[in-house]
Amino acid sequence: MKIAILSPPWIAIPPKGYGGIEKVVADLTENLVQMGHQVMLFATGDSRTKANLRYEFEKALGNNLFLKNNIYIYLKHLHKFFKIIRQEKFDIIHNHVGYVAYYFLDLQNIPFIHTLHGAFYKNLKAPSGFIKEKIDTLLRFKHHPYISISNNQRMDFPQLNYIKTIYNGINPDDFKPIIKKKNYLAWIGRITYNKGVDIAIKVAAKAGIPLKIAAFIDKGDLEYFNNKIKPLIKETKTELIGEIKDKKVKNQFLGEAIATLFPIRWHEPFGIVMIESMACGTPVVAFNKGSVPEVIEDKKTGFIVEKEDQMVAALKDISKIDPLYCYQYATTNFSTQKMTKDYLEAYQIVINKFKNNEK
Amino acid sequence: MKIAILSPPWIAIPPKGYGGIEKVVADLTENLVQMGHQVMLFATGDSRTKANLRYEFEKALGNNLFLKNNIYIYLKHLHKFFKIIRQEKFDIIHNHVGYVAYYFLDLQNIPFIHTLHGAFYKNLKAPSGFIKEKIDTLLRFKHHPYISISNNQRMDFPQLNYIKTIYNGINPDDFKPIIKKKNYLAWIGRITYNKGVDIAIKVAAKAGIPLKIAAFIDKGDLEYFNNKIKPLIKETKTELIGEIKDKKVKNQFLGEAIATLFPIRWHEPFGIVMIESMACGTPVVAFNKGSVPEVIEDKKTGFIVEKEDQMVAALKDISKIDPLYCYQYATTNFSTQKMTKDYLEAYQIVINKFKNNEK
Predict the structure, then answer these.
(1) Helical H runs in B131-290?
(2) Sorting pLDDT into bands at 50, 70 and 90, what band is B30?
């Protein structure tokens, strides 16, 4: 199959640190190439891939919320991509760039599919910008073929033309479970209100277990970090380490923890941190929101709770969780191989529908 | 000829008050229809036209600089337009929307032409947003066919593929020259640093002649107006009247003035106010910038000066200017009929080039 994968210009492929979308793009692309498909990856010039790499921007622009409001960046990136699409024949375009690309995809004749990476439900608090317009876009193009990354992601807009739910995956080769734990809790992710790092700090303090935070701080979130999180970190003597860019370091960081805390405030559409943690043999204690009940097996690979105090309480039972079961569960149900196979099936469904509509 | 005219979504056609671009669009569209061409005008639902009106937005969105930074407005407007373009066959698309549309136009197969309505030279001060990106866009698409609205507009970027300079026009039927003057000077336009309304106030004060300002104030310019202009107006007892929406009222406002002041700080790409003033029989005293020497005949339809003091001095000679000559000069050289004829020639040039490239 000849596949064009459209990635955003913010983070190079594969991502060295933070980058959920880019991780999916990287794994999917390499697996497709390995299976013998002809793949064009449209990303940034500093990406590394076995696919045919094409790009507009030499270097990734950085995951900067302010840049994301500059229309011209999208226009340049997408214009170059669609110039290529007009010159070469592809069987399918797989869009990971998001909503701006929909308007262009709708005006051309190659079958395409969107993966919905974000959260777009109606009462989403503190969205990263243009949420109303993004939802308008989804509804305008509700006939487009969509992949949801959890069933929960569909909640407020079930009327879109969903082809499948395909969970994000990890490569089992990248992880080994760590049985021997050290006395700390882990939190990893982007520092932002919705991810609840402040709740994690409070929970750890109440449980009397040290917390280590591996954080990515976007420029757009800097004010929130300085005003709300920094004082809490100081007060509780929480250990703040930077963004982890090395796979082995991440395996150790997550694997040696007693548990990973996932006290989200929003409906997380997938939450790759949860499967990474389980693949390191570390249970996840999470709030019952978004994809959480689809990703964690309650009482077997972690605990699904409703409130802060329940999270503190759950930590008392954490030793009942089997690290090896966590590893097995994550690598079986959420592997990049399974994800790739599912995407190929989705591509074929879309291509067949497209051919039938053309007739 | 089957012509698609693409207008911005900010102001309905024809404009009731402020709206230089929309005035050109309105006059051109009606003239083309009258000449028997099949014209589709893509604007907003509250527009009035004899052409086939199509639109995305029911109502004009308002000329609001903040709205203009919302990528999704452009995307919706352009998406609907290009859906129509894909369904119906046009000979040419005439783009008045600006730079965002270039990226879409470049990805389709109908001949098109851009009219450059704005100023985009390198040292432009206080531009209205994304000036660097707009210039990037021009250079990226320098092979596109362009209409400049003055020769001066081309100054810093002569390398674009200009087809013609076509001056904006007025409809002679809309104007009559007023010979009998009242004791005041006129200033008309959008309140913004580049238009130099503060200079006009100072000049009038020094000359000892009352000034009347007919102003459009964009929300984005409100701070400038409140901080810089309002105090000056108070101090000098300048008369501030609102935006003039009625043609006859405007004819009277401009026509009864001794002179219209045009003390611009930027290189005005055209400046329709100058020809309107002359068509009302009122000379224009302007700074020698931008299109000014192409539009005013120095010492015959006004005075072209370099500095504030020269503008004060020129007002002493203003009675030497013949109002009827001003009227004649403006309606002969800058009529919408001439403008329409020139555009039709430009369309034909572009269509012929396109056909030759296809062979």
Answers:
(1) 131-140, 197-207, 222-224, 230-236, 247-255, 272-279
(2) very high
Are A99 and A133 a contacting pair, CB within 8 Å? yes
| A72 Cα to chain B: minimum distance (Å) | 6
Burial code (b: 16+ CB inside 10 Å, e: under 16) for A96-128 equals: bbbbbbbbbbbbeebbbbbbbbbbbbeebeebb
For residues A262 and A305, give the distance between their C-alpha atoms in angstroms, rounded to a whole number: 10
CA distance to partner chain A, nearest, from residue B194 (Å): 24
Q: Determine contact, residues B329/B301, Cβ cutoff 8 Å.
A: yes
Tell if the CB–CB gap between B71 and A100 is shorter than 8 Å. yes
pTM for the full predicted model: 0.90
Over residues B162-175, the pLDDT tens digits come to 999 999 999 999 99
Q: How far apart are CA A29 and CA A5, in angstroms?
A: 8
User: ipTM, 2 decimals?
Assistant: 0.88
Contact A280, A327 (CB under 8 A): yes
DSSP state, residue A40: E
Q: Cβ(B74)–Cβ(B100) under 8 Å? A: yes
Q: Determine the Cα angle at B33 with ends B29 and B34, to 5°.
A: 115
Distance of CA B100 to CAs B79, B106, B120, Å? 12, 11, 14
What is the 8-class DSSP label of residue A108?
Answer: S
The upper half-sphere exposure of residue A127, i.e. CA atoms within 13 Å in the direction of its Cβ, equals 15
Number of A/B CB contacts below 8 angstroms equals 60
Say what the alpha-carbon torsion angle A327, A332, A336, A340 is, to the nearest 10 degrees. Answer: -170
Query: Residue A103 is nearest to which of B70, B79, B86, comparing CB atoms?
Result: B79
Q: Which of A318, A170, A333, A196 is nearest to A257 (CA)?
A: A318
Question: How far is A242 from B273, CA to CA, in rounded Å?
Answer: 59
Q: The tokens of A207 are what?
A: 């449980």
Distances (CA, A) of A48 to A10, A14, A26, A28: 15, 7, 9, 13
CA dist., res. B47 & res. B32, Å (int): 17
Interface contact flag, A136 B74, Cβ < 8 Å: no
Under an 8 Å CB criterion, which residues of A touch B?
Answer: 69-72, 74-76, 78-79, 82-83, 86, 99-100, 103-104, 106-108, 130, 133, 136-137, 140
Which candidate in A75, A110, A131, A133 is best for mutational testing of the B interface (most B CBs within 10 A)? A75
Is the Cβ pair B107, A106 closer than 8 Å? no
Q: How far is B148 from chain A (nearest CA, A)?
A: 23
A186-198 residue pLDDT tens? 999 999 999 999 9
